[in-house]
Amino acid sequence: KGAPIFFRESEKRRDFSHIAPEELLDGLLSILSFYGKMKKEDLYGILGEKCGMKIVLSVRYRELDKVLFSSERIKVEGEYIFLEDGEV
Fold this sequence. Notes:
Elements: H1 21-35, E1 38-39, H2 40-50, H3 61-68, E2 74-77, E3 80-83
Antiparallel strand pairs: 1-3, 2-3
């Protein structure tokens, strides 16, 4: 309890619904920190790859949006998403 939760990359498929929101958020923030400004579909695609998925369908975006936008550090500019401070 109280310890930070870090994203765990996997070659075996891990469904988003079976991963804690805090772990998903850590993964999303890490990807944004590395790549900078990204389109949402690219961000979610990379997260999906790190969860052992070949593709992330747009029907899954809503659940990932809920996790992503739970962070006050996320900023949107047009179709691009980025971290306000640029660091995880």
